[in-house]
Design goal:
Residues 3-250 form the ABC transporter domain. Keywords: ATP-binding, Nucleotide-binding, Transport. This protein has ten helices and ten strands. The strands form two sheets. A six-stranded mixed beta sheet has the order 6-7-8-3-9-10, with helices on both faces. Strands 2-1-4-5 form a four-stranded antiparallel beta sheet, with helices on one face. It is 39% helix and 24% strand. By secondary structure, it is of the alpha/beta class. The chain has a domain at 3-78 and 169-248: Rossmann fold (3-Layer(aba) Sandwich). The protein has helices spanning 41-48, 71-77, 94-100, 109-115, 118-137, 153-166, 183-198, 210-216, 234-237, 241-248; strands spanning 3-12, 15-25, 30-34, 56-61, 64-65, 79-82, 171-175, 202-206, 219-224, 227-232. Helix 7 (183-198) links the parallel strand 7 (171-175) and strand 8 (202-206). Bound molecules: adenosine-5'-triphosphate. Adenosine-5'-triphosphate binds next to strand 2 and helix 1.
Amino acid sequence: MLLQVKDLTKKFRGLMALRGVNFSLAKGEVLGLIGPNGAGKTTVINIISGFLKPTEGKIFFQGREITGFPPEKIARLGILRTFQHVQIFRELTVLENVLLGFTRHLKRRLWHDLLGLPLARREEKEIREKAQEILALLGLADIASMPAYELPYGKQRQVVLARAVASRPELLLLDEPAAGLSSSETKELLLFLKKLKDMGLAMLIVDHDVELIWEICDRVAVLAFGEVIACGAPSQVRQDPKVVEVYLGS
Ligand SMILES: Nc1ncnc2c1ncn2[C@@H]1O[C@H](COP(=O)(O)OP(=O)(O)OP(=O)(O)O)[C@@H](O)[C@H]1O
């Protein structure tokens, strides 16, 4: 298993936000996490990515326990999260934004720059080529030299995801990727996420757009009042009477 979440509990003062949450995610798998407002979805993402510590429970990544590790360390291990609000460098071009995604792999870079060694120039050329490759693969090549602020919101979302891909994560945690998008932008996002899936990237996706979730996810876990009330293939989960009652019915 790539990721295992075991008996996760989170208390915020008097409030039990999570009560014994269990689920796992295999390599290359796309898992959806849905549920009503306040169910605890963002809290799960915050704990996996190290932004919050659980009250109880453990997180394992590639067989290693990572519970309570700081966010930078978790990111270095290959778990990358995106936020509900787009975090983009508005003045930089699309290509430059994607180039920044490579910094996780640029350990030697600074020294070679300082010493003026040819390796730095060679490495930079290689990275530019790789960034162009990613943009081409994701259908963003034609906007590579545009400044990010000129792009519509939906495209900015895609650029943020392309930058995440450039850092070669093992697992992407997406917090409401479709929030604020129009229905045509959401359709475009779905195609984009399918490309990431075809690259073999594992993803945990939290979103209220259930159509997007049914389309892209291999399995879906439903959270209500801090508990997983159903987990399985989209076709099963969407017909589960409990899920219909607490989430879909409304
Ligand atoms: N830092 C915090 N301090 C206190 N309570 C919190 C904190 N973060 C979340 N909560 C509470 O924990 C519960 C779960 O919140 P969470 O944001 O994880 O839900 P969610 O399923 O992501 O909801 P939404 O779909 O509305 O984003 C809510 O009752 C929320 O008010």
